[in-house]
Fold these 4 entries.
Entry 1:
Amino acid sequence: MSAEATNPEAHPEARPELRRRGRSRLDLRRLGRAALLGPTSRDRLPDAIGHVAEAHRAHHPDADLSILRRAYLLAETSHRGQMRKSGEPYITHPLAVTLILAELGAETTTLTASLLHDTVEDTDVTLDQVREEFGDEVCFIVDGVTKVEKIDYGAAAEPETFRKMLVATGNDVRVMSIKLADRLHNMRTLGVMRPDKQARIAKVTRDVLIPLAERLGVQALKTELEDLVFAILHPEEYEETRALIAAHAGERDPLPGIADSVRGVLRDAGIAAEVVVRPRHFVSVHRISRKRGELRGSDFGRVLILVGENADCYAVLGELHTCFTPVVSEFKDFIASPKFNLYQSLHTAVATSEGYVAEVIVRTRQMHRVAEAGVVALGNPYTTPPAEAAEGDEERVDPTRPGWLSRLLDWQQSAPDPDTFWTVLRAELAQDREITVFRADGGTLGLPGGASCIDAAYAQYGEAAHSCIGARVNGRLTSLSSRLSDGDTVQLLLSHDAASGPAADWLDHAKTPAARIAISGWLQIHPDSAAATTTAARAPLSVVGARGGGANAVADLPDAPVRLAGCCTPVPPDAVAGFVVRGGAVTVHRVHCAAVAQMRAVGRTSVAVHWRATADCRVTLLAESFGRPHLLADLTEAIAREGVEVVSATVEPPVEQRVRHSYTLQLPDAMGLPALMRAMRDVPGVYDVSRA
């Protein structure tokens, strides 16, 4: 396996800043010899970290390099005599890790901790010495990396050790930045290990570390890790992809010509922009070949346009879509709606007159830095280092901590066992999209794509969401299983009954770890309740009371019996129409009832109907509610308080926690119907009451 073959630095177009500076790839063997010789002067940086200093100053011109000199001297002295399995002096490893981070733009504190990240674990240096020499901030990061480095990647140990890694990452994301750079250098030099060990480390990298790199937005590390893992776990497909790229290298590449055309368009429009061609990395080429089949020349890379301001991005987009033929389905605006990992760009695709389709990415230079380096580009997230952060296990909250990481830290504490934690962690990291929904009180909730109202309930209320009985999404009542979309407004409805709990089928719709763990825990504690929710639906419950007197409607047919239609239950002063049915009876409907239109469509003649002078009437009402104990009793009590007689009542079996009630009522006065319906709607759990 060739590290150069999969390293983005092997493609100078992908890293224009390297091409401009003309710096060669770091020679680890030469650097190792320089490390053994040590510095030639106490007043200047050791030659061995010259590359690090140069890369660091490129991003931070005013950085104080003296602390890096002291950190290097301590690391080199401590690791002196230690060798890597590849035969190189061990100091080459922390130097290489630090150089990776320096190229990404990491600040001085991170680089200092990176140089020292193995000293506490592998040498006689103690945390107290690190704190005394370099301060609390460096000590805290080194301690976090040391705990992560102690992870045993054996199958049995993975769940609990990755739980510790997650906590260390949450306390300071710079810990995981160093870990990712550490893993990248180890993967570059993995060829000295046995094939079985290579495969084991590659699988862990694929399952956890690459998704974490994606979540932290460190695309530069993520893409190279993907290529290295691809080469180890899928060697045949890797060789096919490498041959495909090699064959393309000998053909005419249309992308440079397209980039020249784009430069001309933007120059004529007066937009200052840098236009470069970024070759796809190996895994990207493999994925697109599986998606599109035979690849054309423009499929092996993308055109990247860098501008100064956000407004320039949209100006560039307008020029592209004006001067080229846009592929509308490929347009995505990640500036207005950034990804959960801080990523911002405009994505589009344009077709040229020669028939090529080129994918184009438009972003500002600051967006580009964040897109490549993610959280590494955020610098030091703390304004005041905590005085005693490294002495205890107390958590300090990173103000730049992504929302998804906060959620992982919340639910990992309640994960019942390591296997559950491991399963749910991998499922959570596999989510590649996040949505933001608005709460009714004006707050926001960050949820993974595909989340339901159940997930929103547990994200907002925690275990109190066990009593959730429904939700309104964008003002409309919906079931708890409904999926949410980015920008939805969610109002969650909770039951007043403390004994209520989730149904077993909630697990079919819950996507977030917090929701699934909380629901599973409740169902284990209340197995009888869980069984009750899975029993077969019972027949509707019917309650029939004493029937009232005759209808108070009179038809213009002498001696004809009159019945009020059950489909629309007319009451005074509704406008009504009557129709003679079998047996000579007259059935009375409201004039807007669907049955009236059907009768007239088949040629039936209506009969004039008027109301008696008496005010009493019979009506059927439908009540829609969320299921809860004592609901039927509360509804009938509300009806009785209005002085209304219940002729009959039917309660249908619950469906998704919702219950439908049908009441036939005898009212002493039709004018009291609106007040009765309001009283029924005021019963907790009832969300709608309507005429049948």
Entry 2:
Amino acid sequence: MTGNSAPHGVLGAPVERREGLQKVTGVARYAGEYPLPGRAHAWPVPAAIARGRISAVDASAALALPGVLAVLTPDDAPRLAAPEDAALAVLQGPGVPHRGWCVALAVAESPEAARGAARAVRVTYTAEPHDADLDPGDPDAYEPRETNAGFPGRVEHGDPADAFAAAEVRVDVTYRVPPLHNHPMEPHTSTAHWDGDRLTVYTSSQGGTTVREVLAQLFELPEDHVTVVTEHIGGGFGSKGTPRPDVVLAAMAARRTGRPVTLAYPRRYLPTTVGHRAPTVQRLRLGAGGDGRLTALLHEVTTYTSRVREFVEQAAVPSRVMYATPALLSSHRVVPLDVPSPSWMRAPGEAPGMYALESAVDELAEALGMDPVELRIRNEPEREPESGKPFSSRHLVQCLREGARRFGWAERDPRPGTRREGPLLIGTGVAASTYPAAAVPATATARALPDGTFAVRINATDIGTGARTVLAQIAADALGAPLDRVRTEIGHSDLPSAWLAGGSMGTASWGWAVHDACAELAARLAAHSGPLPADGIATRTDTAGRADADSPYARHAFGAQFAEVAVDTVTGETRVRRLLGIFAAGRILNSRTARSQFTGGMTMGLGMALTEHSTLDRAFGDFTEADLASYHLPAHADVPDVEADWIDEDDPHLNPMGSKGIGEIGIVGTAAALGNAVHHATGIRFRDLPLTPDRILAGLLSEG
């Protein structure tokens, strides 16, 4: 059964987002839209060198301009306690670790005046030699003990090198993914206000609880002296997962001027300031017998990190989950460079890692003369290869078979380059998807009021995914109450604390706490007789010790993606005709918002495959594509009708709702499915993303 089946009850129903009308009518307020009395505006000054030191800052011309209130420099900016994330140590010293590092901050009566003042600041530097070139053979490359999110840097079992050498059929290929940027619609923006020693910030962040903790530490305040409001967020895709310089700089400027200050980071400065997906060079070696069963899988990734802080894109991790093999090597090497700090971007690790793995599996299928869908099914593991744990649920085979049926895969001519429509070459491709299913502790309260309504409170963050709505559905289901009787309060640090919206763990974590609070409240109401007291009856729950408990199961979401493309032999342009994704992601809590999440992720994967990339200029240590005119996101005309659906999956080993995260799995596998379709269309294997017309045309001409 798939997701087109009619939902029963409030959970699973296609409920419209509660804040939808506010957003389309402009009532919803974002971080830069709080008109506090006396509000000023700030504008950063980015470093113009790739590495070195500030010799002097001359702000006299800036301060002489009308409306300018202050210019903060490393010499006179408020001092901060040393942060855990060194990227937040802004204006704390003369060092310049990379181009774009904030070296001064202008504050003025208006954004225009602040921008003019920032441009009038004169900074003198002492430049030092820098290195911004990712070279897999770099002698400074090292193997990290851990990658992002605590995954081991290296996992190995069996004798992979010897097993590969002895394999009957071998594939040894290298895939490259360039730097990629999050570019949410709402730039990173914060408004800060001090009232004595109490700080209030309105910030575009995926997690207000984390922002509160970090600001309290930086400014050496009790946490209850910091209030963080994250009411509406215009996207983040990981880049707003932890505090960024905007919120720290706004607080510093507000402290200096004694006025509320808004800092909306200019989009052209975002690539060097708020993180990005680091480039990866991925070598895949797959060995198999003539029957298609893997005998060796080696996935070796080289990436970079900045010298500010270590961040390692865990692109080899998916190979530890996907396929049965007696010999496995999954490893990372990282090169420290003078580059902006990489960070989280939607499906970190899985998005680039599964692109390379699923492309290599397609190459193995061709070498074997085997159908790519059947090859994946043949190598389905009984247990998770890395841990040996049983899967809590794994319906990848069902996703592959259902997707193949709907897509018409059986009618496909497997020979590459055989289907033509005039100058167009038509091809189809498939790839699998996976993403971990996890949860972290959260707290929530639920209150029954005398008027028959219910109030649920938790410091969750809605980054545009419909958190308010789905949490109300979870509450109504646990209470046995009509949905319109449940009110949810989120996005404020005075609410019960909760983890950020990231890692596809938001709803699973928040929903667990909300479910338990409401289930307890329902039990108390059932035992209560007579009218409710004036302030109602309330419960509070904390899932610590349960949500973060070790599980005997390996918990992941899975999916299968199918794509059809048309490649123009005259222009090299690739047009996507069809995208189909079938997912197995536990219980779907809202069919409307879930389908939106899946299709949004798939669209982002389309951009990763065909248009998106940044070029790190070696001479300047900066990204040349610094705005939406040069960093090419897909437009509406680039995106076909994307179809996303799911397998009805009952998994009792996750959380009380039986749900898995869905925010990220949609992007995983899309790029590989499209790349495999381009190969099927042209007969040429392109191993560097994105598949832009210049690359495609050059390949076609060289083959011709």
Entry 3:
Amino acid sequence: MAKIRLLGSPSIEQVGGATRPPRGRKTWALLAYLLLSDRPPSRKRLAELLFADADDPLGALRWSLAELRRALGGGDVITGDPLVLTLGLDTTADVLVVTEDSADPEPLLDFSGELLDGVDLASCPEYESWLLVERHRLSAAIEGRLRETAVSLVAGGRAADAVAYASKAVALNPLEQGNHELLVRSLAISGNRTAALRQIAVCEDLLRRELGLQASSALREASAVGPGSIAGPPLGGRAAAASQLEAGRAAIAAGAVDAGLQCLRRAVSEAEHCHDAVLRGRALAALGGALVHAIRGHDEEGAIVLHEAILIAEQAGDRSTSVLAHRELGFVEVQAGRRQTAGNWLRKAEALAETDGEHAAILGVRGMNSSDQGDYPAAFEHLGESVDTAARCGDRRQQAWSLALMGRAHLLRAEYSQATTIVRESLDLIRQERWIAFLPFPQALDAELSLYAGDLEAAADGFEQAWVLGCQLNDPCWEGMAGRGLGLLSADRGDHAGATEWLTQAASRAAREPDRYQWVHAYVLDAACTAALARDDDERARPLVAQLATLAARCEMRELMVRAKLHQARLGDSSATASARLLGAAIDNPALTNLLLQGE
């Protein structure tokens, strides 16, 4: 049995016998690429990527392959062209454990160090670029699995066991407020409120010192939850619980969020008190959904509630509630840019779904995830099917939601006529439904399309309406989208100071909550980078580009990662254009292809 360790200092351990490790840094680099590449690479490509400076690149590749085969036990472990690495059943690799949903999460607690820690390949700039992206991606994947494990343990009544996983997530990414909130909640529910309050203080000082930010109110609220419960005391009987559930749903739909949440919490407590598992699961799912969608900064609590809803629904055999909760958890992960866990939740939801309404909603979130990653063929397929299915079952809000995302995808591909038609169809449905909470998003998209069409007056009206309504709704995503648009409008009018002010404001608004929509944050940063570089303001552009590159890599937003590389090229990074071409080769976006051609 062999254990491949690539997180931290790389090694290969053979259980039961000593094995000489493979020689050469590039051999370790080759192993990492073979394990983590999206598709089997050709020998020619690997020779260019890693051994271009050798007298005989293909010969150097053959030598490294021989070293790997020996270290992995010989035989046909690496074969063909393109090269395929086939590990034996008795061989494990830590980088694969990270991405396997079914793997035991406990080894994650022992992982330390980044991918190929200490391996420096300055002579291979394209590989170094790939390695940087993979380091961010794997770090985010580990963090995501740690968080998911902690949430699941809290929801299952094992908050004390969750503390270790939440603590590891904090250690891995201490500037992510959501990790601190999860740890605080785990400590409080397990009965250690003193430690929870100390952790709040640590987080507040850290955010103030490192980011100049105040912690959200959700952090301190997390310490107020008592041991063994995520809700309040019971009130009456089953009829009262059902009434509270319906009242809560109605209040949330009407925009009375605080009253709705209060009703839903009472419904959860009373359903538990009267031992009605089906009603309790439905109340938990409604509460979790409300926390995720209706109030910012509460995704951590919402995720725990949704996990508990799944446990209760599965015990009660309530399929529809389980579908809803799985889909909502997928949505939370998509917004956070945790692609692996998002995909896992959505696949589970899809396997359980039976009705058109359920399928339409799941397909919409899948399309959102694909679009965020830059996978446009998949995005159009999922979103188109979602629109058709929602129309068939009369779910006009879902139809409008998926149309807006489809319009966004066409806008990003510079297919402005298609985008305009689809976005305005979404707007018509939203206005018919009086769905004020979602209106600013397609408003901002429509205004951006007006800007590109040269209608500055319509663009200004649209962006301003989206900004005012986004602020009234206190939604950082919509504020970020509208503020970005107002920045673009100012730049188009030659008001560069106004553009800088609006884009700075938009970036701050989009990132102010721990449960922000990461794609919007990155989209704003990209616009800010573009505006700074257009004015040759390299001093302002450099930190923005670095922030965009890190965020896009961690959240697997491939197109925005390419754009970050192109920004780096404009800042003088001689290897960035080649890296952008490498990263963008598989992205089907004519607008991005044109940008890459301009960068040559």
Entry 4:
Amino acid sequence: MTHDTTDLALGYDDGDIDTNRTANPSLNELAHAMLSRRQAMRNGAGAMAMAVFSSSLLTACGDNNNISRGPTDPAPTAGLTTSGTTSSGRVVTLTGTATDNNPVSSVVVTQTGGPAVNLIPAATPNSFTFIAPVVSAATTLNFRLTATDTAGQVAVADASVTVNPPALGFNAIPKNLNDVVTVPTGYSVTVLSRLGDPIAAGVPAFANDGSDTNFAQRIGDHGDALYYYGLSAAGTRDDNSNTRGLIVQNHENITQTYLHINGPTTTGGVRPEAEAIKEIEAHGLSVIEVTRALNGGWSYVQASNFNRRITPNTPTVFNGPVAGASFMQTAFSPDGTRGRGTINNCANGYTPWGTNLTCEENWAGYFRRPRATDDALRTPAQVTSLVRYGVASNTGNYGWSTVTPADPANTLFRKWDARVSGASATADFRNEPYHYGWVVETDPYDPSQAPRKRTALGRMNHEGCWPGNFVVGRRPAFYMGDDAQNEYLYKFVSATPWVAADATATNRLAIGDRYLDQGTLYVAVFNADGTGQWAPLVFGTGPITAANTTYPFANQADVLANARLAADVSGATRMDRPEWTAVNPVTGEVYLTLTNNSSRRPNTLDAANPRAYVDPPSTTVGNRNGHIIRLRETGDNSEATTFTWDIYVFGSGSDLDATNINLSGLTADNDFSSPDGLWFGRATNATGQVTPLLWIQTDDGAFTDQTNNQMLAALPGRVGDGGTRVVNNNAGGLTGSATTRIGAAPGTQLRRFLVGPRQCEITGIDSTPDGRTLFVGIQHPGEDGTFAAPGSNWPATQATGSAPASTRPRSAVVVITKNDGGVVGL
């Protein structure tokens, strides 16, 4: 890369004497040729060739730093310094100087060796910056500054920079209980979007006093997983845009007390319609357009045509084997192919064809179905199914089914009543619970397209649906946790091998039909020896038949709708709350957060879930701090049906027993509890290449006496980089031991990067393609407070550190940038 201020014209040359009559080029011509080739010097071979030529020129003139063109007029002097040895993703500064007794007519900075970089003029004259390129080993970059005076005399100065592979580039921050988002020195935090912010023209600003309405056109509550989709200046899909895009964010739940003026109300067991509709609309997901200004600040565009809310009332369609099944029939959808809405959307996924995958997690509790009266009206198989999924509430989480709507034809509230009440399934909503628990695909670029529920991926408490690495000719895989104690890890393998051209198709949901509507759903079995198998959940395979005594499966649609039951009979390994999955973009290894498990006991341990202990001041027994497990598919092939595994890191306080609890040797710089969110940096920048950066977010109740929830950054190794450990558990009068596989201690390759405000969860993370802007979700700050006494005042506290004590907290998305413009985390 070359940067110049003017074209360089050489003047008098005392070596250019008319005595050689051959056609060979003169020195002056060679110099001009050298400079005319500057734009070609963009790769290592060309740059090095140029450097050799330039050195020969200087030696011929008798001075490696200054070239004099006149006996009385001194040549200019030149200098070039760098900010020193660095690592991939960091900002490097080149500082140049050029002086002369006459004006300097031009200064040229040329890269003469190493991977090409983009030189950007800095505020200081003749100085430039660039982002250190991604390298896998120490690599030298060479640069030359050439200064020319008005007489054509030239001086050059050379400098080099050694770039090392990606490395964590910040000091760990301490745990704290402050009511702000805290990040390391050298970073800045700004608030991008918040609960209640209007996302349509004419919608008034959020009052934040409980009086606001119309959440169908406002950002919802409890923002969870998010993803950034790039937009071009023309408003079309652009996966490389770092300045304009769409953020799709889940809205998992609500903090009910803050949504109403004096908290929620109920009269005679009946909820008011206005309160209920507000609460319903605050669920779902949002799509908002965001832009970066020239000064680097980010904001969202209130009146963008892309802005969209998808709520529990939004029309949806069912795709895949379950669409049209008899157990999908309702009064709203007699043929079982259409539905309304999505709810309790937690973690997420994405597709390379540009769509978003949102996942329905703790949906069962929203339904009213008292077992005491309803079980008798069901078949034994129906009762087994509903109980296994937890559809057994007397009123439902927020009592929405109790609403008496002003319009008697309105069934938006009635659908939450899953009791048998009509003559058939098409006369009531007994089957409505089967409309939830799915992976839902949406096209963020096309608000006119209804979301599609992809039933081939199974029904459960979907925490997320993260894709494995896509390889041409290989059937893609998606990894999913089922977020509840003692549930399972699943994998869906498409029936269709990947075709690269499908990534740029314009009918994106049609591409989703191709890859997500047919395939095989598997569940993970973790063996004690560090191996594992993917058990297929296919009707007629093994115990998954109509003759099964636990549950008589009728067909493949029944298997998918009751994936938990199919996994039960297939011998799947019961895990300590499987939550987010993440896939290393270089190795393809799969990481899974196991947040915690209060029901784990010393006599129910296994190799993949080896701890049950007491973490004071609590007196309860269980895996209170959680861990992160990882697996490597056999042959590094996501189609494989076997794998190896180990535990990357155990959550723990640094003060807990190092032999049986703090097995990863965590310190005050990186101790944590209850890992939840999990994400690797994008492969488009240094955080997703060579040694990808892993971000870990917590949702914790065990460590909150020492710190608010947090986010850590790590450079993990690979499955098998540690060894075996025997873990002895002695708690609650029970004893047990397990031999497990544990990864190498993370040490300084795991550091605390962020601590959130009071009573929040840190959840949701993505970046721009260049990795220089990080978007992070802050969910339910102050969730334990009341409208009269909020538990937090954030985000109003972020700018100044304080706010009136009565200020209600709001879930929000923050933007984190590095003050020098480098890649976040490195």
